[in-house]
Specification:
Layout lengths: L7 H19 L7 E5 L5 H9 L4 E4 L2 H14 L4 E4 L8 H7 L2 E5 L2 H14 L4 E6 L12 H13 L7 E4 L8 H13 L4 E3 L6 H6 L4 E4 L1 H4 L12
Parallel strand pairs: 1-2, 1-8, 2-3, 3-4, 4-5, 5-6, 6-7
Bound molecules: pyridoxal-5'-phosphate (PLP).
Amino acid sequence: MVAPRHDPVIALQALRRDIEAACRDAGRPSQSVTLVAVSKTYGVEAVELVIAAGQRAFGENRVQEARAKWPALRERHQDLELHLIGALQSNKAREALTLFDAIHSVDRPSLCVALAKEIQKQGQAPLLLVQVNTGAEPQKAGVLPEHADAFIAACRKSYDLEISGLMCIPPADEAPAPHFALTAKIAARNGLKLLSMGMSADFATAIRFGATHVRLGTAIFGSRTSAAPLSPD
Ligand SMILES: *Cc1c(COP(=O)(O)O)cnc(C)c1O
């Protein structure tokens, strides 16, 4: 028996309905949540299908892959927004600013210095979100929750960066709700409006805790067949 082919457009439409339902349940307007379609590892053809179905916000986790894929797509579609959701090396800050409208992974002073310098030079800034390592996982990027307030203050005062929100990726083996709640609490007490949280398995929960950006990849595009681990930039 042959498995039915995954159709990204049908999947996208179903997810939009799910997001609307989650918003309704949370008593929030559906426009308050942006679906970021995470297109890492997927080809331009799949992305084009999803763009044709009306999707505008996309996420990539590597500068190198975004560079290869997105300039041509952007030329064809002027109203897209591209989000960097993966780690950013300081020496790629310049290129990241030319490629991305939002960076969800601000998490250390050296990166702040590089971003501030390039923002000054280029005269425009992407939306910046601080990544919080809510589970204090050693393998994960992000500032520790107990350092978040001081880091956000330093971004503003020492580096003159405007921070718009927070991003978190809860530990895979824990209930996500406490992590979303903690992220939302840190955002609220720092006056931050954007919350990038919630993936395929937990976006409805994230919306309940105030997510403004949910990041969905495989749920839209299907499972990643290119199982080979991607080398870092
Ligand atoms: C890949 C990725 C996602 C999307 O994950 P899927 O399993 O493809 O839905 C969300 N957030 C981050 C930070 C990612 O790297």
